Structures are given as C-alpha cells and as structure tokens.
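One-letter codes give the sequence; each number marks local geometry. A record appears below:


***
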Amino acid sequence: MTSNQSGKLAIADFDYHLPHERIAQEPLEDRAASKLMVLHRDSGAVDHRTFRDLPQLLQPGDLLVANDSRVIPARLLGHRESGGAVEVLLLRPDLDGTWLALAKPVKRLKTGEVLHIPGRDGTIQAGVTLLEKRAEGQVIVRLSDELQQHLDRFGHVPLPPYIDHQLEDESRYQTVYAHESGSAAAPTAGLHFTDDVLTALTARGIGFATVTLHVGLDTFRPVSAEYAEDHEIHSEWCSVPQETWDKIQQTRALGGRIVAVGTTSARTLESLGQRVKAGEPGAFDAFTRIYITPGYEWTMVDILLTNFHLPKSTLLLMISSLAGRENVLAAYQEAIAHEYRFFSFGDAMLIV
C-alpha cells in the first residue's frame, strides 16, 4: 500500500475499476435470489453461493444483528416564489424541530424564503422555510406542520446518485423488517432478506436481533482527501435496545458468533464495543462518529454480511479493515468477472 512518511493510508489504494453495466439499477424481483460471495478472510478464498444459502452458511447459536431503520420519503420537489424549480433532501431532524438538509440550487436560495412543495397527488401544498445556509450545499430548514405530519403525501424516497431512475414500487427500497423511520438511504445488505429466509434462519437455531442506525447520504460520498486519516467522518444516530444487548451477551456466553447485517449494523455494534470497553452501559442511543479503517481492532462483529461498495469509500475502508485490503480487492475483481451486481440493488458478500 502507498503511504506518506507518517504512514497514512492512501485512498488511491482503495480504488478499483467497475464497468458501468455492473451497477444494479433495479432490485431483483426475488430478493433472496441474489448471488452471495463468501470471502474467507484468513485465506482470501471465495465461494459462490446464493443468498438463500445463508442459513446453511451460519451455525446454530449465531446471532444476526440487523438495522431496522426505515427510509423516509425525504426528497422534496417544489418551486420558489419566483417559479424556479427546487429540490430539498432531508438528512436528519434536530431536537428543536428543524431539519438538516441539502438543497438545490443552493446558491440562488435566500435565508428566510419559503419553498413551495406540492403534494404527490397535486391537490395539496406545503412549505419549507430556509433558516440557514451552511457549507457543501447543506441548509437548516423548518417544515410546515402539514408537511411534518404527512411527509409521505409530499416526499419521494431518495435513491443513491448512481441509480438513474425512480422506482415504481418504493417498498423495494425498504427491508422487510424496517420499523424505525429516519434514514435517507436504505441499509442495503438487509434488502436480500425475505420472510422465508428469516423463517429458515430461526428453524436452524440462528437468532435475530435489531439495532437502529439512521443512514445519512454521506454514506455514498467518496473520500476526497488523499489519505484516509484526513477524511472527516460523518456522524449518524444509532441505538442498541436492552433486549439486543442481552441477546449479544447471551450469544457470546454460549460461544455463538455475532453476524452484522450490513455496515450500518457493524458501525452500531462497534460503537457499542467502544462504549462497553469504556465502562458505559451496553444499551444506548446516541450519535456515533466511529471511523473504521485498516488497523482497527474489531471487538463485537465476528461475521459481516454486506453488499459491494463504491471505490474509495469509507465502507470499502471498513470491510478492508475486517478482511484485508488485498483480499477484498481480489474478491471484487472475481465478482466483476462472475458478473455480480454492485451497490445498493446488487448482490451480497459474507465475510467469515
């Protein structure tokens, strides 16, 4: 790997070429029909399976921990008083009732102006007041009462920037166990699960528990810094309920493994590990800024189920810290050769 004199991680070493046709633009009709690459991190060897094989790839007594966050219809399309088109993407609410958001075209917008947002059926209208402009297109806004209470009547589910069209069925961008509303993007490793797969896992004696992490759009943002250490990691709100913490402790006590469903669950679990190490309670809800890169010592996650990630992203750094950069990049090349589908609607990888 390339590094400077201080031994920093060069982001260029986490780049790879992905043919455009390998980016999945639609979810599969059958969620569990996705391909599943099993990456053995001790040897770098890979096996090619399908997602329905997951119960057989795990052991009785293991515990799956999934993110139950639900994607909100956070993309608001409207117009200014002058008639110009505007788009607002809600990122996260604050305790005072305002929202952190992205707005376009942010340079033309003025503090204090009200943006008009028509309902999806065209019969109603609500307002978004711009309170403050911040760096990188971010703004602080306040939603009108009707918009705040009935966001589903106005907003659209936001999709990643590499998806080139809106989904006809927006429920396909939700996991079957999504419950806690708050994400601007789906925890996509969970999109492969069906009720049948969950039933098969239970029948095999594999436990299931949930955490919550509300995913922000920063998860798709490539690292612009030359070195990983110079990147400012984003914060996300996460929660571990007492019931889940109890299950984790029971699983560990009986020799079972903790299987994180996706990088968001992994981020939450490793935040939990840091809290426990510091003598804090296991059950918590708080913002996390944990930044997992090669050299990080994992404390909670034994196995990671994840999708295939963007080049030079913090998520690629994270899985490289678990499986090894060389192993991950070699596995990605094999996935491309075997025509795996990449990114949010793509296939899955199980790192064991």
The first strand starts at residue 35 and ends at 39. The mean pLDDT is 94. The helical segments are 54-57, 145-149, 195-203, 242-253, 262-277, 314-323, 325-337. The two ends are 23 Å apart (CA to CA).
